[in-house]
Amino acid sequence: MNKLAAVSATVAIAALVGGIWYVTAPRGGGDVFADCRTTRVAGGDAAIGGPFELVNGQGETVTDADVITGPTLIYFGYTFCPDICPLDNVRNADAVDLLEDRGYMVTPVFISIDPARDTPDVMADYAANMHPRMIGLTGNDAQVKAASQAYRTYYRAQPAEDEFYLVDHSTFTYFVLPEHGFVEYFRRELPAEELADRMACFLDKV
What is the pTM of this model? Predict the structure, then answer.
């Protein structure tokens, strides 16, 4: 009888410990940002982002380490884009301002996928008109292609006989934290207020 009681007590303790572990264990395999994520990336977060070398608005060659020094919102597009890119960059700038009002500082970054027309001077003017802290980046064809591939973006210039060609491209915005790398991407349909809320969730856990 005593042996049965001892076995029962052992089972009960094991069940209690297991229950406590289940309640307190971090979700998402220890992912501190699990509660904030609304997207999943094939291959995991490490499949997106990484080193790049581009040229800033002052004509200086910079790396990802020079640019991503704090929470950063990255968008790939081009300055001649007639509608999508301006709207997306304005949305991103508005979200950054909303976060600043809450005490968070996020840097918006605009990377050109049209280096033939987007010179450093063009990118500097465009970025300054969008947001005072926006960083505009361009580069040569190889540099731009490498950055695009790192973030798994798509772009392709349409055939044209003059300089007024359009460039097809993906429209995701990427949120990057220096110590964690890429953590989330956002679709363009997301309003600025919701984008700010989504980013704040990540920032609260850093």
Answer: 0.83
Range of the domain at 116: 45-204
Q: What is the DSSP string of 148-199?
A: HHHTT--EEEPP-SSS---EEE---EEEEETTTEEEEEE-TTS-HHHHHHHH
**The domain spanning residue 176 has which CATH number?**
3.40.30.10
pLDDT band at 43 (very low <50, low <70, confident <90, very high): low
Q: Residues 63, 52: contact at Cβ < 8 Å?
A: yes
User: What count of other Cβ atoms lies within 10 Å of the Cβ of residue 124?
Assistant: 18
Distance CA 54, CA 131 (A): 20
* Contacting residues for 131 by C-beta, under 8 A, at least 6 apart: 89, 92, 93, 96, 97, 108
In a domain, 10, yes or no: no
Residue 100 counted as domain residue: yes
pLDDT band at 98 (very low <50, low <70, confident <90, very high): very high
The separation between the first and the last C-alpha atoms of the chain, rounded to the nearest angstrom, is 53
Distance CA 60, CA 167 (A): 25
What distance in Å separates the CA atoms of residue 185 and residue 192, rounded to the nearest whole number? 14
Q: How many domains does the chain have?
A: 1
* 25 belongs to a structural domain: no
pLDDT (0 to 100) of residue 20:
29
Distance CA 93, CA 164 (A): 26
Q: Is 59 inside a domain boundary?
A: yes
